[in-house]
Design a protein that fits this description.
Length: about 450
Amino acid sequence: MAKLIVSKFGGTSMGDAECMLRSAEVAYRQGSSMVVVSATSGTTNDLIALGKTAESQSWSEAEKIISKIHARHVKIASDLNLPTDLLQALETLFEEMASLAKGIHLLKDCSVKAMDALMSLGERMSSVLCTEAMAQVLRKHKDAKSAKLVDARDVLRTDDAFGKAKPITKDIEALSNKHLGYLRDFKTVVVTQGYIGRTEEGMTTTLGRGGSDYSAAILAEGVSADVLEIWTDVAGIATTDPRICPKAKPIDEISFKEASELATFGAKVLHPATLLPAIRKNIPVFVGSSFDAEARGTWVRKEVTDYPLIRAMAMRKKQILVTLSTPEMLHAHGFLFQIFKIFNDHKVSIDAITTSEISVSVTLDDSTLLNKRLIADLSEIADVQVEENLTLISLIGNNINHTPGLGKQIFETIADINVRMICLGASKHNFCFLVSEDQSTETIQRLHKKFVEA
Ligand code: ASP
Ligand code: MG
């Protein structure tokens, strides 16, 4: 039986007409039924700049950015020789971009809500162009299927947390059945947008930067896809960032649990939330390069054939360590509760944590420091110490917390590097610790050599 495949292409895979045709060719060869696209490379950043400029600078400055975005898309449209209906659709989006920017300019107010509406245009424009690329590739192969542009917002229902909206899974399932039920007939290749959604009230939302992977996974879940493919500009997930270790190797296969840890703890190829929907529906995920579709890429699955102790390592820069101590914690209860309540009230997510009798240390992204109220609130219940310029190093693998001697091997390898905090025991799949930012590269290089290259 034919498989229902959802394929996502990132911004670089949408870079120009040639990239779009190459991506469409990959989708065709894979037998995809649904192609989810990012904005063309650089466009989301340009739209953000447009919103900010329209809000605070002269209209002529805003117009310069509009022209740049316009020119980029017109060039692709003319290279693809866009038919009239799609050209009209693209024109309408250009008009919407100019009107939104003008509205922001007149009000001198670019709210997150307005920004979402503006940013949604990136994906909406690229999807119009990519629909034509897909149609051309289908024609070239004399395939009877047709390419169809679908507005992802009709399906991807979210809450109203503009800027980082949360998909509402059960509505999406119902909307997918209603609007995309025909996918199982395998007569259509749907082209749609990543990153964007819509509230029940009809407002456009986005899922947060880099959210197209997540969109694709949510849509794959909605249509109960058999496979989710994430096509990017690197040939799958590597054992570590090849820019840090030239000997990093592509991983053929990795379990959902390990890949989730890897994405959360710093590997850039997948958006950290991407795997959640795939895990919920047990949909295998393939990560590959649209520029080198022959390269093997990586399969992420529930079950894999081998479970090495250390499969990969990642680092997350710009971390801070916040240590909270109070003598009142001695034999008292409720202190952790109070601390977590404060983090919860400020919607701050904690990554790693260690505790002793009278102190608790947590790692946070350094952007958290911008929230002065958080630190003030914490200071009311404990002495607060903040250390900056740290990197969280994570070793990802299997059975990590049940392997005697692993800690010794790790710390012997980096004996001369000062380790600030260690988290071991909570996860079978992750061993993480903090080092200072300037020693992070050296730490990864040595550990990669010891555990992966050896
Ligand atoms: N275009 C959006 C961004 O640049 C979403 C994505 O590419 O995943 O963040
Ligand atoms: Mg992206």
